[in-house]
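Limitations
The structure tokens in this dataset are predictions for the assembled complex, not deposited experimental models. Users should treat interface geometry with appropriate caution, especially where small molecules or nucleic acid strands are included. An illustrative entry is reproduced here so readers can see what is and is not provided.
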Amino acid sequence: MDKIFKLSKKEQVIVQFIMIAWAIVVLVPFLSAVLNALKPNVGAVFRDPFGLPDPVTWGNFAKAWVNANFGRYFANSAFIALTSVAIVTFASSTTAFVLARMPFKGSTIIFIGFMIGVIVPIRLALAPLFDTVRALGLLDTLWSVILVQAASMMPVAVFILVSFFQNISKEIEEAAIMDGAMPFTVYWKIMLPLIRPALATIALLTFVQAWNEYFLPLIFIQSEELYPLTLGLNQFNRQFSIQWHMMFAAILIMMAPTIIAFILASKQFISGLTQGGVKE
Amino acid sequence: MNEQKQTRFSYRTIKNFQRTLLLLPGVLLYGIFNFTPLMMMVPTSLLDWPGIGPKEFVGLDNFKKILGNEYYRDQLLNALSQNVLFFIVIIGTFLVIGTSLALLLSFKTYGRKYYQIIYFLPYPMAGAAVAYLLNLFVNPRGPLNAIMMQFGLIDSPIPFLGSEDTALTTLALFYSWHRMGFAIMLILSGILAVRIDLLEASMLDGANRWQSIKNVVFPVLGPAFILITVIIMVDVFNNADYTLLIMGAEAGPFRSTDIMGTFLYRSAFGASAASSDANFGMSAAIGLITTIMILPAALFLALKNFRNK
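Predicted assembly:
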């Protein structure tokens, strides 16, 4: 057994060589972004893309944040992502609770309805979706993005939670029901504490998805003061596409929260996002 | 409070009432903003409707136009064939590079925990940030061309995204760079799930390492490969973020990066605000055609999840 997975010295060197090669492919674009975002002007970027910044200019980040409105975009993105997380964790846990623990005549039909959302991506229904959002008067508001984003996360969240609920034993719940506990109480007092790990996964998935979403804001939001970071970066690229040092700084601002969160919780990220990707 | 109610309503009534209240938020949210639009694709596809103003019922005219009218058919065939090529490049890199790296990660390599984290790093990043980062990185004046010139690999900078011949492949490689960590993790978990007694048996039979991997590990990886293929297929046939971000809805140069997602977007909103050929009915029809194309793959994925429960 060990003979298969253990490597001799010589093999170890070769394997390390390949691993480092791919690590370089992954890391070099990030490193070049950091190097060049600290350069004083675009000339220094063109002259030597891998040269060290001289002098180190932190001002590019401040300029992007203040002059190019990134503070505003950042706040919009955070609002969209956090509200989506709140809505999805609440709505998916209550719905999944009913579907998994107290099924009724129509629950299979509802479950199949959710499944259709997994089978057909909502982007394909671009025209009717736009029409629905407009009919509700939500066009050009942050709520259009939040509600559509939250709705599109529902099937994945419900599936993850239903399978989680089904693994919880019936005993505690039955004892509580014998004592006359109502569904609200069972959900809030008994189930919610038990499903916390699954809810954390769903919150992470939703946050990353909503923070990164480009397409929904693109079709729903026109006013610049409502732009999230993704549209803001798009706008910034139109204005400053030649100012590379500024572009790199803006890209890093956009990535910073994700990188920090990923480093702090890489294990949860890897397992959670892989799981979410499979369910989609 | 509960007791007060119980005097007026039976336990059963309250239970049903509360159950409905618990069910409703999720069902309404999903029903209004996801399910209804999906269903509305069918009636909308029978309309000639620029998005505002009067709707005109035209029956199957939109489908006839897409499949028969040269203007639309050529766009569809162009977008579709380029989408297939886009998909093949991505899945090819995933299966070759992803499998190799996952295999190496399964060995007892120094620092493999750190390699896993590094390899996964791009995956959680926003597509918009990745697209612009790599766009600058492969620019003729950017770092990649600079370093290749320095090492004498090329004589003059390559316009990866500026040329019709390379733009689509370059965008596909952006996608691969972004999502490779996902493929690696799926294949790696497939390898780690291989039953150890099977491997031991093959070693006892005198098989060497490569023979054991080929005969025991690879056959078990089939499901992981199929899963990756299906997920990526569903994704690349509706998501065109890279093209929209870098090339815009016109999918330049000369529509050489046009895929189904950009074609669909143009049909609903036109390439620019000024153009008037937007038709929501046409857009819904294209959406339906795309749905039918990815349906086998998507159904497979859904049924697989269903069976897992």
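Some entries come with short summary sentences. For this one: DSSP finds 15 helices and no strands in chain A.
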